[in-house]
Amino acid sequence: MAARVLNVNVGVLGHIDSGKTALARALSTTGSTAAFDRAPQSRARGITLDLGFSCLRTALPPQMGPGPGELQFTLVDCPGHASLIRTIIGGAQIIDLMMLVIDVTKGMQTQSAECLVIGQIACQKMVVVLNKIDLLPEGKRQSAIEKMTKKMQKTLENTKFSGCPIVAVAAKPGGPEAPESENPLGVSELIEVLKSQAYLPSRDPSGHFLMAVDHCFSIKGQGTVMTGTILSGSVSLGDNVEIPALKVTKKVKSMQMFHTPVTYAMQGDRVGVCVTQFDPKLLERGLICTPDSLHTIHAAIISLKKIQYFRGALQTKAKFHITVGHETVMGRVMFFSPAPGNFNEEIQENVFDFEKDYLYQEEYLSKDSVSSEESKENDQAGEVQLPKQQWALLEFEKPVTCPKLCLVIGSKLDTDIHANTCRLAFHGVLLQGMEDKNYTETFLPKLKVYKQKHKEGQVERVMDDYSVIGRSLFKKETNIQIFVGLKVKLSTGEDGIIDGGFGQSGKFKIRIPDGLKPETKILLTAASKKKSKGGKGDTTKEDESSKSDSAQPVTISLIFKRYVFDTQKKMIQS
């Protein structure tokens, strides 16, 4: 029986020119078809444009189980160039362990910080590699490495990678132009650290087959090969797989893992799948899956968290670049939270409850955002109360194909790439996709997100013991009929019901079922007497009376809620 090979995917991430590709080359023993900047554009520009894959095989470390076997590290070399961040996000979702490559002469740079953020979202373990130590003068090298190590430890203090290993190397001493005979420094120590950090990632062959394809090419007389990483399930020779982007199903003719033919591959494996011929140009990258297992959606509900390094508010109606699975599209957001009384309720993970009411938010609520009125009311102590969970409705500019419960990242990729600022704004989980193109009519009315409305007016005068006339609650052109029957409250404590309009100027009649309190009547009668006295041509008196009147008018408060997606725009009072 062949010795078992355990595969661990290691992402090589970092700022442009930190030496990621050179490090992957120094570590690798077997390059895959996509490795080491093979693409002509990459070679011409001297930067990595796409995910490069290669592998390193070593003896199985003791923590990964007894018996003979090999540990295979699949190295995923991610581009460091700022405009290629969507490729990095795609890469991070298939990574078990991350290497953050830092140029020791420069320290943390903008994209190193963004890679760290992506790592925190998508990855469990990390090793920091301080590269290019050959550029440090030999006499001061050790102290410079120690200084940078301390700096990195401080940076990682408040992240989940606090205390992670930091290794100093020179992947390509002398730089890209140096002769190949120059031996890399520190790489064998790095391999030992990687072995010590390796763990058995949980792999599950059950469920639908789903693979992220990052390269596609044809082999004459054999078919078209798609290489990628299996995200879920498994695949065997002879299986049918669907390419949703092309709306076709193809049969698996042969498979290879790093140039070794195989008949079966499962979640976490890096594999090349050869299927019956199609034009490889049609599928640069994308997903392939068990037929009919993916959905194409026009909008989605996600649970989300703001990324702490993103400066600025996340506002409803704003547009973001939304990375869903392996696609990045523009989308508009609407944020909402639990109803104020449920801010502290434990929310079931990865499930969205359509039976509940949710509160519309102008922006994502965070410590630095302006607290909503509800938070203020909820909390007299002056500290803003934040909900345990918040959600967003995402509406995509073009449909995306993705699995359920996949990772979603929102970013502002149009920010100036030279600005020293994090462009990743939020991350979350896709809870519910909307496949119907007419989702605004068929689906959104089920989503019970409401806005709290609060209108204030004043009592103008008393009609009798059980009714008053109000003003300033509605505009002249408002159709008061739709408000008839709604409850209001007077500032003096009485409950009232809007009875109908009064005249043409937006005034209205309020019925007070339990009658006006005697002191309210005195207050209102005094106010209207002053008004009528002041009306006899004495303007100074009128000014004085309106001052004393406005000092304590009786106000009318109308509170109701309206569901954002209710086509009838009904006003609801609890």
From the 3D structure, determine the CATH topology of the largest domain: Rossmann fold
Helix-strand category: alpha+beta
Report how far the terminal alpha carbons are from each other: 70 Å
Q: What Rg do the Cα atoms give?
A: 32 Å
What is the share of helical residues? Answer: 10-25%
Mean pLDDT: 83
List how many beta strands DSSP finds.
30
Task: Profile the largest sheet.
Answer: 14 strands, mixed
SS strand fraction: 35-45%
Extract low-pLDDT stretches: 30-50, 80-84, 371-381, 537-550
CATH architecture of the largest domain: 3-Layer(aba) Sandwich
Please report the number of helical segments. Answer: 10
Classified by CATH, the class of the largest domain is Alpha Beta
Task: Give the count of structural domains.
Answer: 4
What general form does the structure show?
elongated
| CATH H level, superfamily name of the largest domain | P-loop containing nucleotide triphosphate hydrolases
Protein name: Selenocysteine-specific elongation factor
Region (Disordered): 527-551
Biased composition (Basic and acidic residues): 535-547
Domain Tr-type G: 5-202
